[in-house]
Specification:
The complex is a heterodimer of chains A (268) and B (750).
Chain A: H1 2-15, E1 19-21, E2 33-39, E3 44-51, E4 53-54, E5 68-72, E6 76-81, E7 92-97, E8 105-111, E9 117-123, E10 132-136, E11 141-147, E12 156-164, E13 172-181, E14 190-196, E15 205-213, H2 215-232, E16 249-254, E17 256-263
Parallel strand pairs in A: 2-16
Antiparallel strand pairs in A: 2-3, 3-7, 5-6, 5-8, 6-7, 8-9, 10-11, 11-14, 12-13, 12-15, 15-17
Chain B: H1 2-15, E1 23-32, E2 42-45, E3 50-53, E4 59-65, E5 68-74, E6 77-84, E7 91-95, E8 106-108, E9 115-118, H2 120-123, H3 135-139, E10 145-146, E11 156-157, E12 165-169, H4 189-192, E13 194-198, E14 212-217, E15 227-232, E16 236-246, E17 250-259, H5 261-270, E18 283-296, E19 301-317, E20 323-342, E21 345-363, E22 369-386, E23 391-409, E24 417-437, E25 442-454, E26 458-472, E27 475-486, E28 489-491, E29 502-504, E30 513-526, E31 530-547, H6 558-561, E32 562-580, E33 583-597, E34 615-626, E35 629-638, E36 642-643, E37 648-652, E38 665-669, E39 676-677, E40 681-693, E41 698-706, E42 716-724, E43 727-735, E44 741-749
Parallel strand pairs in B: 1-7, 12-14
Antiparallel strand pairs in B: 1-4, 2-3, 2-5, 5-6, 7-8, 9-13, 10-11, 13-14, 15-16, 15-44, 16-17, 17-18, 18-19, 19-20, 20-21, 21-22, 22-23, 23-24, 24-25, 25-26, 26-27, 27-30, 28-29, 30-31, 31-32, 32-33, 33-34, 34-35, 35-40, 36-39, 37-38, 40-41, 41-44, 42-43
Classes of the chains: A mainly beta (268), B mainly beta (750).
Chain lengths: 268, 750
């Protein structure tokens, strides 16, 4: 009963926080392109391209953009628009796979219908390996160990885990992601990282992913996160997207990835 | 449940005793015609033969039956008597110099000359917000002072930023006003009810903040008898006491407040556990303890001490994945000794310290965590002397050592904080104020403040002050100029001010921010009934600090983003106060404009900062329906402030998903800052106070409502997407944190 009263009081005080629609005013002109290209060794080249739309316009993910896109690896690969796509994501592709050895840099070149030249360059990080991993059912945590790269410019990582339960409509119970800047660690250092997650106790499996990313990608991912937080409420300070593309907004980068799945039977 | 409460309330009204004790605590301040406080004035209540003396700041507190006749006497001033018919304290008594021919004692409710006096009596004439009386909320109803947001704990004075206000206890900058949210400040009016806010014409002893100085004087307690108070409110409850430690010699005042909303929030949040789209309540708790001791050591020596401890904790679960936890602790205090060898001179010796600690922990996609600590030691000596009938001086010196440490969470052990920045500075200061009574009408104040700052950079500053005032009968005109400097900038965690923001001292190669303020004003009093005030100000600000927009990671250095710019603020203020028997009406209007300009923001174009409130109107009506019933209403209107809106939106890929390409995210594209003006704010607050008494206890039951007509004043903006037939539209929305909220609170005194 006391709980009910408390809930009623609070419900009347706070949870009924009303919301109002605000008029969209003309915020000024905005133009240009938004490009995202994540190259992954042994995967085909895929690029997302869209026009940056003013806030006042409706976003049509199927809207075509007419760009001349090429990536220079050991050869120049020309990415083609994917017809009939319903999303910006992956609307330029080429079936050639990025060789998983021997290339340390990639170059992006885009020519727009306005005859503007968009360029970018990225390093290709070393392959990443999870040296050891474990999931503790008692501490509800997932732990991995891995080694830092010999190249200090490649010591940026994204460590993610998903606690999953397959008999649910949405099998993802909880997802946790950690962005790691290990650039100040010595090359070849052994790193141990743990993510604690209460939902592991009800999960029937845990998916672990470790990605080695570039410094540009790290900064971009942080800016994406912070811009998205500002989107949720103006209480968070807005930040501009921090990309590495000349002549457009976005990111051209490369990452390596290692996945592990640990079923409940192997929890410690 | 509601019916039972109403029934209980009616029964309470029917059966409470009707007798009221008319003995009242009278508070006031005695000043000379120059406006300077007069210490050592003997105040004697001729009716009940009770007496007291004013302290070093001219304040007094006396218990007497109203109506009563008070006699004021001092060796250098003509003795005056004043018949007090009501207790609208604090009133200000202006004593005539023995060689001065002013016609009468001037009694006024509010002093002129760019100063705002507040007292617990003033504070009780506005509806308490959510049942909580607060000094800062009261000050924000004064002309030239605004607040911008229900979540914001800051006040903005004459177009200045909220981090440009200095909060002082007994003239020493040791106080931190902020609890973690803007609901109420750490200043409990039970002990810190008497304050003076300086908007312009600052005395030379005040420097290091650009906009304003709020000096609070702790209640010395009661040297004769013990008294206590319990308050039970919607947000918090408190236990307070005053009394003698040594009768007629040493007294104390102490107050302890604590909140209990967090317990209700926890229950509410637990009920959300299985909800797929939960709307979690912040689990917020605060407590504070304020204490003061006052001792009359001898006829010449007085000592006092003050301490304030506050502790806040907030857990904000935004979603199942993201959670913020904030802790905020403060501990500050000072000890003061006053030596009055003769009636025309006084020495004050003070030592103080302040210490704050905050820790933030964000779990989720970016597990940012860190802590900030700021501690300072301060010492000051001041000397006031009357050189002649026309001239008196105030002079002194100060020393401050401040240290600012920031730390980040360790990569190796998440509960370990590694120090990432350690800055400190020493500040040496001397000042001199000369008050010269030119003739019967004109008064001239000139002063200067010199500071030497030694931190990452060394700098000397000289800040002159000047003020001339003309008084004729009850008309006062004045003009003043003051230069102020500020060495600290505040890195904001959020777009609204919170105490966990990081104070940052001058970086190498930067100059202190300076403000030159020019102000004129006029005050006309009509009898004891009506007071009219109008003022105009202009502020020219140089080297003001801000931070460029950039991503923040654990290795981000604030110095990389610290930028310097300039700005101005200008405006005019009007205030009308009517105080006639049971009716008290105050109406004021402020028109102002504030601009800032930084090469790194908005391509160097000047912009309106988010605290620029063009029009601000306050209407306060308080009516004593009967000796037991007091109705308070407060209507406020303020122009909408500027916030940052994205110019565009893009759809980005979320590479952290296990299956790449899942869940694309809509990302706003921000270019300019403060490019969207929010709708205007207005609301009405009302409360009804009912006083009654028992044999030895006095009760005040307050029933009221915040935002009576439920105006949707935006607290923050967010963006919602609407998708239909694969087309996505962005809808900007504002959330209203404080809609219509009724409240009930009870205060018991004994």
């Amino acid at each position: 009963m006391r709980k009910m009263i408390s809930i009623l009081i609070l419900a009347s005080l706070f949870s009924c926080m009303p919301e109002e629609e605000l008029p969209i005013k003309n915020m000024g002109a905005i133009s240009g392109y938004f490009i995202e290209c994540y190259c992954i060794p042994d995967k085909s080249y895929t690029l997302n391209a869209a026009k940056i739309l003013p806030l006042t316009e409706t976003i049509d993910p199927g809207a075509a953009v007419d760009l001349d896109v090429s990536i220079k690896a050991d050869t120049v690969i020309r990415l083609e628009p994917v017809p009939g796509t319903l999303s910006f994501l992956g609307n330029y592709q080429h079936m050639t796979r990025l060789a998983n050895y021997g290339i340390d840099s990639l170059f992006l070149s885009i020519l727009t219908p306005e005859n503007e030249h968009i360029t970018a360059k990225t390093a290709v990080p070393d392959a990443i390996e999870i040296a050891s991993y474990s999931v503790s059912g008692t501490n509800n945590s997932a732990t991995i160990t891995f080694q830092t790269s010999r190249n200090p410019k490649q010591n940026y990582y994204i460590f993610s885990m998903q606690a999953r339960k397959s008999d649910r409509d949405d099998p993802v119970l909880k997802k946790e992601t950690t962005y790691l800047d290990l650039s100040r660690y010595s090359p070849g250092a052994s790193i141990e990282k743990t993510i604690r997650c209460q939902e592991i106790e009800e999960a029937d499996g845990v998916f672990i992913t470790l990605m080695r990313i570039t410094e540009d990608c790290y900064n971009y991912q942080i800016s994406l996160y912070e811009a998205n937080s500002a989107n949720q409420g103006s209480i968070t300070t807005p930040v501009p997207l921090v990309g590495n593309i000349q002549g457009a907004m976005g990111i051209f980068t490369c990452y390596t990835k290692c996945n592990k799945f640990i079923p409940r039977e192997k929890f410690q | 449940m509601v019916a039972r409460m109403v029934k209980w309330f009616v029964i309470l009204l029917l059966f409470i005793p009707v007798s009221l004790d008319a003995q009242t605590i009278v508070m006031g301040k005695v000043i000379a015609n120059s406006g300077e406080p007069v210490s050592g004035v003997n105040i004697y209540c001729m009716d009940n033969k009770n007496g007291t003396t004013t302290d070093s700041l001219g304040y007094f507190r006396l218990e007497c039956d109203i109506p009563c006749t008070l006699e004021f006497s001092h060796i250098n001033y003509k003795s005056e008597t004043y018949k007090l018919t009501k207790s609208d304290a604090p009133f200000v008594i202006t004593l005539r110099n023995k060689h001065n021919n002013l016609k009468e004692v001037v009694v006024r409710a509010l002093p002129a000359s760019g100063r705002v006096l507040s007292s617990i009596k003033n504070i009780e004439r506005i509806p308490a917000i959510l049942g909580e009386q607060d000094i800062l909320k009261y000050l924000a109803t004064m002309p030239g002072i605004v607040t911008t947001n229900a979540l914001n704990s800051g006040i903005y004075v004459r177009g200045g930023n909220s981090n440009e206000n200095g909060f002082l206890i007994n003239n020493m900058v040791i106080a931190y006003p902020d609890h973690l949210t803007g609901i109420l400040s750490t200043f409990d009016p039970y002990i810190l009810g008497n304050s003076t806010l300086f908007k312009s014409g600052f005395p030379a002893r005040y420097n290091s903040f650009l906009s304003s100085y709020i000096n609070m004087r702790p209640d010395p307690g009661n040297k004769n008898k013990h008294e206590g108070e319990v308050t039970i409110g919607l947000v918090s409850s408190a236990l307070k006491a005053k009394g003698p430690l040594l009768k007629n010699h040493t007294s104390f005042a102490v107050s302890a407040r604590t909140s209990y909303l967090q317990h209700i929030s926890k229950l509410y949040n637990r009920s959300m556990k299985d909800n797929r789209n939960p709307n979690y309540m912040p689990e917020y708790s605060f407590s504070d303890i304020t204490a003061s001791i006052d001792s009359r050591l001898s006829d010449k020596w007085k000592a006092s001490a003050f301490g304030l401890f506050s502790i806040d904790h907030m857990k904000m679960k935004i979603s199942d994945h993201i959670q913020y936890v904030f802790d905020w602790h403060t501990l500050s205090g000072n000890i003061n000794a006053s030596y009055t060898p003769t009636s025309w001179e006084q020495w004050d010796f003070q030592f103080g310290s302040k210490n704050t600690y905050s820790e933030g922990d964000a779990s989720g996609s970016i597990p940012m965590g860190g802590g900030n600590r700021h501690y300072a030691l301060l010492g000051q000596v001041s000397y006031a002397r009357k050189l002649s009938d026309n001239i008196n001086i105030n002079t002194g010196g100060k020393f401050e050592y401040s240290r600012f440490e920031t730390a980040n969470k360790s990569n190796e052990r998440e509960d370990l904080l590694i120090k990432s920045s350690d800055k400190d500075f020493n500040l040496y200061e001397i000042y001199l104020d000369i008050n010269y009574q030119l003739n019967h009408n004109f008064m001239l104040n000139v002063g200067a403040n010199y500071q030497y700052y030694r931190g990452d950079t060394h700098t000397h500053t000289f800040s002159p002050r000047a003020k001339i005032s003309y008084t004729f009968n009850k008309l006062t005109l004045w003009a003043d100029y003051a230069k102020t400097v500020q060495y600290l900038s505040l890195y904001p965690y959020f777009t609204v001010k919170t105490p966990i923001d990081i104070w940052y001292p001058l970086a190498k190669g930067t100059k202190p921010a300076t403000c030159h303020q020019y102000s004129i004003g006029i005050n006309q009093e009509i009898g004891q009934l009506l007071s009219l005030y109008a003022g105009v100000f202009y502020k020219d600000m140089r080297h003001v600090k801000d931070f460029a927009s950039d991503i923040q990671t654990e290795y981000s250095a604030l110095t990389d983003n610290l930028i310097q710019g300039k700005g101005y603020a200008k405006g005019m203020e009007f205030d009308l106060t009517l105080n006639h028997h049971a009716l008290y009406v105050r109406a004021n209007y402020t028109l102002s404009e504030s601009k800032r300009k930084f090469a790194e923001i908005n391509n160097g174009k000047s912009f309106n900062p988010p605290y620029d409130v063009k029009h601000n109107v306050v209407l306060n009506l308080s009516y004593e329906i009967s000796p037991r019933l007091l109705l308070n209403t407060l209507w406020t209107f303020s122009s909408g402030v500027y916030t940052t809106f994205p110019k565009g939106m893009v759809v980005a890929q979320n590479i952290t998903e296990i299956q790449t390409g899942e869940n694309p995210v809509l990302i706003p594209v921000y270019t300019d800052r403060y490019n969207y003006k929010l709708p205007d704010n207005h609301r009405l607050d009302a409360s009804l106070d009912y006083k009654f008494s028992g044999k030895k206890t006095f009760y005040k039951l307050s029933i009221g409502a915040y935002n009576v007509y439920n105006q949707s004043n935006p607290s923050f903006v967010y963006f919602q997407t609407e998708t239909s037939q694969n087309l996505t539209k962005i809808i900007p929305k504002s959330k209203v944190m404080l809609p219509f909220i009724p409240y009930l609170s009870l205060r018991i005194n004994w």
